[in-house]
Amino acid sequence: MNAPGGRPVKGVESAFRYLPVERDGKVGGDWYELLDLPDGNLLLAVGDVSGHGLPAAAAMSQLRYALRGIAYDGAPPDRMLDRLNRILCHQRADHLASVAVARLDPRTGRLVWARAGHLPPVLLHAGTVRPLAPPPRHRARRRPPARYVTAEQQLVPGDRLLFYTDGLVERRGTDLGAGVDRLLRACVDYRAPGLEGLLDHLLRRLDAPNPLDDTCLLAIGLTGDG
Length: 226
Description:
alpha+beta
């Protein structure tokens, strides 16, 4: 796998999809990040900035590239979120943002992650599917100091991990939990190898694109080739 803008990363495969509501400019506030770091870890993140179109895209770009810089300094996920939150509060931004961020060591499979108001990633392991047990939940742009907490998950070759924004599962007039349940069932029903096919399958089963919200998915898998 090649992390965008980085060197090849052995033992990891990846795929992503981005479906903005804004069809003309094809921009929005949802985003993903997959970046190889100097210490050999991978930065994984998916985020959602409130709003659509160019204003949301501009805010998204600020957060995304700020996260990159923070991650290069070796900060753990909870500290990344704390710094992003401080940036938003200092700017007195008029938007909200949710983020799920992780550091993955592809050599050992150790995943350390945290979230700010975001849905947990979904783990596909040995024929089972479940959301990762989350650390306590916070939303970015709370008055600092916000307290973010990390959680850990050990991944093994064959495991697949899905990060996504709520545009995939949330529909007007339906419960968010019901949408997450639909996602989990769709993951269980997909038995073929390969992440590209998995994402296409999920988008079909969950009736994407969402006409009212941007949608972003990032999937990674450990191949055991490292």
